[in-house]
Amino acid sequence: MILLDHVIETAWTTMFDVLPIVAILFGFQFLVLRRRPPRLGRIVAGFGYVLLGLTLFLVGLQMALFPLGETMARQLTDPAFIGIDATSMIVDWTAYGWVYAFAAAIGFATTVAEPSLIAVSMKAEEVSGGAISARGLRLAVAVGVAAGVAIGAYRIVSGTPLAWYIMAGYVVVIAQTFRASPMIVPLAYDSGGVTTSTVTVPVVAALGLGLAATIPGRSPLIDGFGLIAFASVFPIMSVLGYDRLASWMRHRKRALNEDATSIPEPIRKEDPP
Amino acid sequence: MPKAIKGFFRLLMASVRDLMPIVLVIAFFQIVVLRQPFPDLGGVIVGLAMVILGLTLFIQGLEMGLFPLGESMAQAFARKGSLVALLSFAFMLGFGTTVAEPALIAVAAEAAKVASEAGAIDRTSEARGNYAFGLRMTVAVAVGAAILLGVVRILKGWPIHHLIIGGYVAVVVLTWFAPDAIVGIAYDSGGVTTSTITVPLVTALGVGLAYAIKGRNPLLDGFGLIAFASLSPMIFVLVFGMVIHG
Known about the structure:
The complex is a heterodimer. Chain A is mostly helical. Chain A has 12 helices and no strands. Chain A has helices at residues 2-33, 40-77, 79-82, 97-112, 115-127, 134-158, 162-179, 185-194, 200-214, 220-224, 227-261, 265-270. The radius of gyration of chain A is 24 Å and the shape is globular. Chain B is mainly alpha-helical. The interface between A and B is large, with 101 and 101 residues.
């Protein structure tokens, strides 16, 4: 019954993580606000579901996905697999094709399953009255994380400074902000923060540390970190880009419709039968 | 009752769809690229079933518990009209949810190890403990301050990009002056602070406040608290590094 032990242990630690939040919420609710929230029983049951759900989610991930993902990250970065001489100090960044592909694919896939992103996009769809689609937003964020982690992997391989990339990212984000529709901006900024959580961090961090440990001249301490930072800047760009794309497509559709309805009758008559 | 079961089944199917990409990516790389058999296939399948059930329960609980509570508290604070109570709640929510965050505890311990090996602090376990504790407190205060500032922004209706761009400028300037050893840790600390339980609560709080205050748009003013919470730790940790590393 190792599994059951594991579930109970994770449930216990999750409880302790949640304890301060519950204490603050209930402390303010009963000492400051001094009134019962409506449907208290349902809320307490909801907390129970969240706790149980997170516990099962974490145990399942630790059983099924994290070990595989981490082993995979190690194997893909192994000099023997890449086919380079481990003792050579010269790093050819083009030899790491599968690493970039894995980085992008796993960044995308883990982001789609990220519970905090699901929460934010559900709320966004609800608040916008369906104008922002939860699925579209999540896909846009996932594409951003995929690009970010792949470029982050390239950065570790090439050994260029982290700060340059992040600052260039900021410049792009600022430029995009001034062209975006104002409604999407707060959401885009938020999506940078929610991507790096339960599912994404362990696998992506393992990839970064594996890369830094096997590439000659890289230090896991200096180069291994920082993939997370990529995963939080790039989604902002992709969400702002998604907004431009969506509004461009709306305009084009409208323009096409107008064209279609404004075709004058005589021209059609001149067409040969 | 059948309706509830149908709803649960629909959520379950959505979870299956959400997890499909991970399964496909791992299967593809395992079978096609690395050309290796799946180790312990039974364990993987049991684990996946737990992940799917867990995600479904989490989302169900979100809609039953976390979202309604966050929103009803936001409304209650708005109705009570006490600015001190609301702001201290905002700070405590940010501080309290971050200080015990396991990811942060792990990063702080790791950072202390790096700092003592680099000779920035003494090589004693006491010095490391102090350093890690200081870093944790710094990040927790940063998140508390971020949620507080974010709530003030919602109340005042300030445009978000002024504050975020200001924050970016601060990060860039501080990166210039901060010691190299702290930069990577500072950048990562922004990502580890927003946990799976904090995000829905803080989002519901922001949206609830924006609904409750006249003249605020929930989409334009309600979102953005998470963005502050992931930017401010970078600034605070860079400053912490400059103070400690000198």
